[in-house]
Protein backbone atom coordinates (compact mmCIF):
# COMPACT_ATOMS: atom_id res chain seq x y z
CA UNK A 1 0.00 0.00 0.00
CA UNK A 2 2.83 2.40 0.86
CA UNK A 3 4.45 1.70 -2.54
CA UNK A 4 1.22 2.62 -4.33
CA UNK A 5 0.92 5.81 -2.29
CA UNK A 6 4.54 6.72 -3.06
CA UNK A 7 3.95 6.12 -6.79
CA UNK A 8 0.84 8.30 -6.69
CA UNK A 9 2.76 11.13 -5.05
CA UNK A 10 5.52 10.82 -7.67
CA UNK A 11 3.02 10.79 -10.55
CA UNK A 12 1.03 13.78 -9.29
CA UNK A 13 3.49 16.49 -10.46
CA UNK A 14 3.59 14.95 -13.94
CA UNK A 15 -0.20 14.87 -14.11
CA UNK A 16 -0.40 18.50 -12.98
CA UNK A 17 2.25 19.41 -15.57
CA UNK A 18 0.23 17.71 -18.31
CA UNK A 19 -2.98 19.55 -17.42
CA UNK A 20 -1.26 22.90 -16.96
CA UNK A 21 0.77 22.50 -20.14
CA UNK A 22 -2.29 21.67 -22.22
CA UNK A 23 -4.33 24.59 -20.90
CA UNK A 24 -1.46 27.02 -21.47
CA UNK A 25 -0.70 25.66 -24.93
CA UNK A 26 -4.32 25.82 -26.00
CA UNK A 27 -4.51 29.64 -25.74
CA UNK A 28 -5.06 30.75 -29.40
CA UNK A 29 -3.06 33.96 -29.38
CA UNK A 30 -3.23 34.44 -33.16
CA UNK A 31 -7.02 34.38 -33.11
CA UNK A 32 -7.26 36.56 -30.01
CA UNK A 33 -4.85 39.23 -31.28
CA UNK A 34 -6.41 39.56 -34.72
CA UNK A 35 -9.90 39.86 -33.25
CA UNK A 36 -8.82 42.46 -30.70
CA UNK A 37 -7.16 44.40 -33.53
CA UNK A 38 -10.43 44.39 -35.46
CA UNK A 39 -9.14 42.17 -38.27
CA UNK A 40 -11.83 39.52 -37.86
CA UNK A 41 -11.30 35.76 -37.74
CA UNK A 42 -7.82 34.80 -38.97
CA UNK A 43 -9.17 31.32 -39.73
CA UNK A 44 -11.11 32.80 -42.66
CA UNK A 45 -8.06 34.05 -44.56
CA UNK A 46 -5.09 32.38 -46.21
CA UNK A 47 -4.47 28.88 -44.95
CA UNK A 48 -7.03 29.23 -42.16
CA UNK A 49 -4.30 28.60 -39.62
CA UNK A 50 -4.12 30.52 -36.32
CA UNK A 51 -0.33 30.77 -36.33
CA UNK A 52 2.03 33.66 -37.05
CA UNK A 53 2.56 32.87 -40.74
CA UNK A 54 -1.15 33.18 -41.46
CA UNK A 55 -1.51 36.22 -39.21
CA UNK A 56 1.17 37.83 -41.40
CA UNK A 57 -1.23 37.48 -44.34
CA UNK A 58 -3.41 40.13 -42.72
CA UNK A 59 -0.62 42.56 -43.57
CA UNK A 60 0.04 43.37 -39.92
CA UNK A 61 3.65 42.41 -39.18
CA UNK A 62 3.47 43.52 -35.56
CA UNK A 63 0.55 41.18 -34.87
CA UNK A 64 2.36 38.34 -36.61
CA UNK A 65 5.48 38.96 -34.52
CA UNK A 66 3.41 39.12 -31.33
CA UNK A 67 1.67 35.85 -32.24
CA UNK A 68 5.01 34.17 -32.90
CA UNK A 69 6.43 35.39 -29.59
CA UNK A 70 3.41 34.45 -27.48
CA UNK A 71 2.97 31.02 -29.10
CA UNK A 72 6.63 30.33 -28.38
CA UNK A 73 6.59 31.67 -24.83
CA UNK A 74 3.62 29.55 -23.79
CA UNK A 75 5.75 26.50 -24.63
CA UNK A 76 8.72 27.92 -22.76
CA UNK A 77 6.59 28.75 -19.72
CA UNK A 78 5.04 25.28 -19.63
CA UNK A 79 8.41 23.52 -19.68
CA UNK A 80 10.01 25.94 -17.23
CA UNK A 81 7.28 25.37 -14.66
CA UNK A 82 7.25 21.63 -15.29
CA UNK A 83 11.01 21.44 -14.77
CA UNK A 84 10.49 22.61 -11.20
CA UNK A 85 9.36 19.01 -10.54
CA UNK A 86 12.07 17.38 -12.64
CA UNK A 87 12.91 16.62 -16.26
CA UNK A 88 10.05 14.16 -16.75
CA UNK A 89 7.49 16.72 -15.63
CA UNK A 90 9.11 19.34 -17.85
CA UNK A 91 8.93 17.03 -20.86
CA UNK A 92 5.32 16.15 -20.04
CA UNK A 93 4.35 19.81 -19.77
CA UNK A 94 6.08 20.53 -23.07
CA UNK A 95 4.31 17.71 -24.87
CA UNK A 96 0.97 18.81 -23.45
CA UNK A 97 1.54 22.45 -24.43
CA UNK A 98 2.39 21.39 -27.98
CA UNK A 99 -0.73 19.24 -28.24
CA UNK A 100 -2.78 22.02 -26.69
CA UNK A 101 -1.68 24.40 -29.42
CA UNK A 102 -2.45 21.87 -32.16
CA UNK A 103 -5.72 20.64 -30.67
CA UNK A 104 -7.27 23.37 -28.45
CA UNK A 105 -10.53 22.32 -26.88
CA UNK A 106 -11.83 25.89 -27.23
CA UNK A 107 -11.64 25.74 -31.05
CA UNK A 108 -13.04 22.27 -31.61
CA UNK A 109 -9.53 20.78 -31.46
CA UNK A 110 -8.48 22.68 -34.61
CA UNK A 111 -5.43 24.77 -33.82
CA UNK A 112 -2.07 25.73 -35.29
CA UNK A 113 0.78 23.70 -36.72
CA UNK A 114 2.99 24.08 -33.69
CA UNK A 115 6.26 25.47 -35.04
CA UNK A 116 6.46 28.49 -32.73
CA UNK A 117 5.49 26.38 -29.73
CA UNK A 118 8.07 23.78 -30.81
CA UNK A 119 10.75 26.49 -30.67
CA UNK A 120 9.45 27.65 -27.31
CA UNK A 121 9.82 24.15 -25.92
CA UNK A 122 13.38 23.99 -27.22
CA UNK A 123 14.10 27.33 -25.57
CA UNK A 124 12.91 25.98 -22.24
CA UNK A 125 14.60 22.58 -22.47
CA UNK A 126 17.71 23.14 -24.61
CA UNK A 127 18.39 26.82 -25.38
CA UNK A 128 21.49 26.16 -27.50
CA UNK A 129 19.53 23.81 -29.75
CA UNK A 130 16.83 26.47 -30.04
CA UNK A 131 19.54 28.76 -31.43
CA UNK A 132 20.52 26.06 -33.93
CA UNK A 133 16.86 25.70 -34.93
CA UNK A 134 16.60 29.46 -35.48
CA UNK A 135 19.78 29.53 -37.57
CA UNK A 136 18.57 26.68 -39.78
CA UNK A 137 15.11 28.22 -40.17
CA UNK A 138 16.51 31.63 -41.12
CA UNK A 139 19.01 30.11 -43.55
CA UNK A 140 16.43 28.00 -45.38
CA UNK A 141 13.89 30.85 -45.36
CA UNK A 142 16.46 33.25 -46.80
CA UNK A 143 17.31 30.84 -49.60
CA UNK A 144 13.80 29.61 -50.40
CA UNK A 145 11.30 32.11 -48.92
CA UNK A 146 9.20 29.11 -47.87
CA UNK A 147 8.16 29.21 -44.21
CA UNK A 148 6.91 25.63 -44.33
CA UNK A 149 10.14 24.26 -45.82
CA UNK A 150 12.17 26.12 -43.22
CA UNK A 151 10.09 24.57 -40.45
CA UNK A 152 10.35 21.08 -41.92
CA UNK A 153 14.13 21.22 -42.22
CA UNK A 154 14.67 22.78 -38.79
CA UNK A 155 12.36 20.33 -37.00
CA UNK A 156 14.03 17.39 -38.75
CA UNK A 157 17.45 18.56 -37.57
CA UNK A 158 16.50 19.34 -33.95
CA UNK A 159 16.15 15.76 -32.56
CA UNK A 160 19.46 14.82 -34.18
CA UNK A 161 21.24 17.80 -32.61
CA UNK A 162 19.66 17.04 -29.24
CA UNK A 163 20.83 13.42 -29.41
CA UNK A 164 24.36 14.39 -30.44
CA UNK A 165 24.59 16.86 -27.55
CA UNK A 166 23.63 14.24 -24.97
CA UNK A 167 19.97 15.16 -24.44
CA UNK A 168 18.62 11.68 -25.16
CA UNK A 169 15.25 11.95 -23.38
CA UNK A 170 14.58 15.36 -24.85
CA UNK A 171 15.64 14.11 -28.28
CA UNK A 172 13.05 11.33 -28.11
CA UNK A 173 10.32 13.82 -27.25
CA UNK A 174 11.29 16.07 -30.14
CA UNK A 175 11.45 13.14 -32.53
CA UNK A 176 7.76 12.58 -31.73
CA UNK A 177 7.00 16.30 -32.02
CA UNK A 178 8.78 16.43 -35.37
CA UNK A 179 6.67 13.57 -36.73
CA UNK A 180 3.51 15.36 -35.59
CA UNK A 181 4.73 18.63 -37.10
CA UNK A 182 5.41 16.97 -40.45
CA UNK A 183 1.95 15.37 -40.35
CA UNK A 184 0.40 18.78 -39.69
CA UNK A 185 2.35 20.11 -42.68
CA UNK A 186 1.30 17.31 -45.04
CA UNK A 187 -0.67 19.73 -47.26
CA UNK A 188 2.29 22.09 -47.34
CA UNK A 189 4.53 19.21 -48.37
CA UNK A 190 2.16 18.37 -51.21
CA UNK A 191 2.14 22.00 -52.36
CA UNK A 192 5.93 22.23 -52.11
CA UNK A 193 6.28 19.16 -54.32
CA UNK A 194 3.78 20.63 -56.77
CA UNK A 195 5.40 24.07 -56.73
CA UNK A 196 2.21 25.72 -55.45
CA UNK A 197 3.26 26.64 -51.91
CA UNK A 198 2.89 30.29 -50.85
CA UNK A 199 6.10 32.12 -50.10
CA UNK A 200 6.82 34.33 -47.09
CA UNK A 201 5.07 37.67 -47.54
CA UNK A 202 2.42 36.35 -49.92
CA UNK A 203 -1.23 37.01 -49.10
CA UNK A 204 -4.18 34.70 -49.71
Can you characterise this structure?
By secondary structure, the chain is mostly helical. The protein has one domain. The protein contains 10 helices and no strands. It has helices spanning 2-25, 29-36, 52-56, 61-82, 87-102, 115-125, 127-144, 147-164, 168-184, 186-194. Helix 4 crosses helix 6, helix 6 packs antiparallel against helix 7 and helix 8 (147-164) packs antiparallel against helix 9 (168-184). It is globular.
Largest sheet: none
Structural class: mainly alpha
Termini separation: 61 Å
Low-confidence parts, pLDDT < 50 over ≥5 residues?
A: 1-9
Tally of alpha and pi helices: 10
Q: Name the shape in a single word.
A: globular
Order of helices and strands: HHHHHHHHHH
Helix content: over 70%
Using DSSP, what is the number of strands?
0
Q: What is the count of distinct domains?
A: 1
What radius of gyration results from the CA coordinates? 17 Å
Instruction: Tell me the strand percentage band.
Output: under 5%
Average pLDDT reading: 89
